[in-house]
Amino acid sequence: MKKKKIELPDVVLESGIKVKPIYGPEDVKDIDFKEDIGAPGEYPFTRGIHKYMYRFRPFTMRQYSGFATATETNKRFKYLIKHGQTGLNVAFDLPTQCGLDSDDPLAEGEVGRVGMAIDTLRDMEDAFKGIPLDKISTSLTINSMAPIMLAMYVTVAEKQGVPPEEVRGTLQNDILKEYIGRGTWVFPVEPSIKLIGDTIEYCSKNLPKYYPVSVCGYHIRESGANPVQEIAYAFLIAKAYIQHVLDRGLDVDDFVPRFSFNFDIHGNLFEQIAKFRAARRLWARIVKEDLGAKNPKSMQMKMIAGGGGGGLTIEQPENNIVRGAYYALISALSGTQTMALCSYDEAYTIPSEKAAVISLRTMQILLDEMGLRDTVDPLAGSYYIESLTSELEKKIVDMMEKVEKKGGIVKAVADGYIQNEVAKQAFLLEKGIQEGKIIKVGVNKYQAEEEEREIEFHDYKAEEAEVQIKRLKKVKKDRDDSKVAKALKELKKAAETDENLMDYVIDAVRAYATVGEITSTMKEVYGEFKEPVRL
Amino acid sequence: MKKNPIRVLIAKPGLDGHDRGAKVVALALKQAGMEVIYTGLRQTVDQITNTALQEDVQVVGLSILSGAHLPITKKLLQKMKKEGLEEMMVLVGGNVPKADIAKMKKLGVKEVFPTGSRFEDIVSFIQSNVPN
């Protein structure tokens, strides 16, 4: 009897991996269990960086928030602390992120819009009034201005009487991804990396409990990168920072344990889980074998995996609740340390209280109802997951080599190669969706007639900007200008050398020099980044 | 005679760094055979006008996601008029609420393409409305 041949459609993942309909022992025969997978909490940490993972301590649940002025932020912080939150997350407005004072003409219309406006130390003092910086850990979402914000933060801690060794918190401080994705760069690439080196060195010598860098594959993926590019570029970026600091004579184990990563989760469920497992294994190998680390803590890839904004749709937004639940599941199955989910209404408005609570409940349901904390890395040993993990690791390694061949990540970002690769990927994805080749439910399949949803923006309150500008003027009037001038002069002199600038920035901050003044002084020496436009 | 390709300037005004949409649309127009110049981030209205003038484009596409589309567009159109560029076609893309589209057109914007617009719609609009 002649058997009828079944035609199955091809399945190709975003990373270019072809998926077979059935996986079996032959797909994992090249994987050495001990070498490649091992036990949780042990090298190469494929299964997780801790032995008992969530069974011992669940992932941290952290939602983002940002408020316009220091005083408002302070009120919100106190409210959150009262309700048991131990970690704060600070968003800054765009002028602050770009090194502009609130009264700069280029800041017009943007003061306090997407976060807190910081002009001088006075703003930071007010934001953290009555909040002990040794008890509360604060995450500062800041990049090109990281040295200045860190300087203000340690100065506030000092004024509170908190010893430096007790100061806790995290800086985003990942400038290379800003050139690729978020766009809040100021200085050219080389001096920007030097400044990151200054903050890492400063923290490793003075602030042992502080995390100076969070390398963000997240924003690279949100700009359009595929999962392989996301991890490969993030690792190359992390390696560039580490190499820079090693060149200063520090030991890898002195500072790499304080590195962390921020990754994105939307996309194919299995591909994402394998991506994180592959990334953890590869990072351990890079840090041990290439960088020569001895301390296992240096080799552990700590991450926040969440968000997933790029996967959410404005169409049929309730579907985003379901997507968010799957993203959270992916994140939990991937062994994340911290989880933060985008809210279902984020595609068109400022997240409502209700939407934010649903995100939180999603994570809590996974932990308390669905058994996600019961056993570590439950998918280990699956033919498909292990095979995919290995394939992704190879793809990430290849992608890293491709960039190395282009002259390395620093050059590839400076000349716009990476930005161009990511834009091309974003274009292909959008084209695929518009042509119906990549399916988004509610967008190009199962569409429904919907009422127009009003897009809402962060409120812009012109009167609050006025208040901020008045505050700035008052600080400038009350301060000792000669002290400011002296501190800026010293800063400029130091910027012309290889010296670590942190102490000079701290002196300038202490004299109430403004963010704009400090930035301008550094620009005189470093110049400004010229965006390479390649299409 | 072969027609010269349509010249388009894609511009990103203000401090907002979300340039995924601007770049994706620029690539789509390029693939449709247009000559596309992209300004890069943080452009002032004066810079955009100067580039449009120097590059001798027929179309200026502004990408705005910050919510500041009304004041920015108003300022740009005034400046362009001052420079004698009122013939140029100005398009706006990004996060623009439906209620604002009529207001934008009243200011002089030829068409608004909110987030999620189809490439073919943008391309055919430009092709059929481009000033000679």
Describe it for me?
The complex is a heterodimer of chains A (535) and B (132). In chain A, the strands form three sheets. Chain A has a four-stranded parallel sheet with strand order 2-3-4-5. Chain A is built from 22 helices and nine strands. In chain A, α6 (146-160) links the parallel β3 and β4 (169-171). The mean pLDDT of chain A is 94. Chain A has 535 residues and is α/β, with parallel strands linked by helices. Chain B is 44% helix and 19% strand. The A-B interface holds A 94-95, 97-98, 100, 106-107, 109-110, 113, 178, 181-184, 222-224, 314-315, 423-424, 426-427, 430-431, 434, 443, 452, 454-455, 457-458, 460, 531, 533, 535 and B 14-20, 23-24, 26-28, 30, 36, 38-42, 44, 66-68, 71, 95-99, 115-116, 118-120.
Looking at this protein, list some descriptive labels.
heterodimer, A: 535 residues, alpha/beta, 4-stranded parallel β-sheet, 3-stranded parallel β-sheet, 9 strands, 49% helix, B: 132 residues, Rossmann fold, 5 helices, 19% strand
Main beta-sheet annotation of chain A = 4 strands, parallel
First-last Cα distance of chain A: 58 Å
What is the 3D form of chain B?
globular
Largest inter-chain contact set: A-B, 37 and 34 residues
Mean pLDDT of chain B, to the nearest integer, reads 94
Morphology call of chain A:
globular
Please identify the top-level CATH class of the domain at 1-44 and 212-228 and 258-291 and 300-447 in chain A: Alpha Beta
What is the compact description of this entry?
The complex is a heterodimer of chains A (535) and B (132). Chain A has 535 residues and is of the alpha/beta class.
How are the elements arranged and paired?
The complex is a heterodimer of chains A (535) and B (132).
Chain A: H1 33-37, H2 53-56, E1 60-61, H3 70-82, E2 87-91, H4 94-97, H5 121-127, E3 137-141, H6 146-160, E4 169-171, H7 175-182, H8 189-206, E5 210-211, E6 213-216, H9 217-222, H10 227-246, H11 252-255, E7 259-264, H12 269-290, H13 296-299, E8 303-306, H14 319-333, E9 338-339, H15 353-368, H16 383-405, H17 409-414, H18 417-434, H19 462-478, H20 481-495, H21 502-510, H22 515-526
Parallel strand pairs in A: 1-9, 2-3, 3-4, 4-5, 6-7, 7-8
Helix pairs in contact in A: 3-5, 6-21, 8-10, 10-12, 10-16, 12-14, 12-16, 14-15, 20-21, 20-22
Chain B: E1 7-11, H1 20-31, E2 35-38, H2 45-55, E3 59-64, H3 69-82, E4 89-94, H4 98-107, E5 111-114, H5 119-129
Parallel strand pairs in B: 1-2, 1-3, 3-4, 4-5
Helix pairs in contact in B: 2-3, 3-4
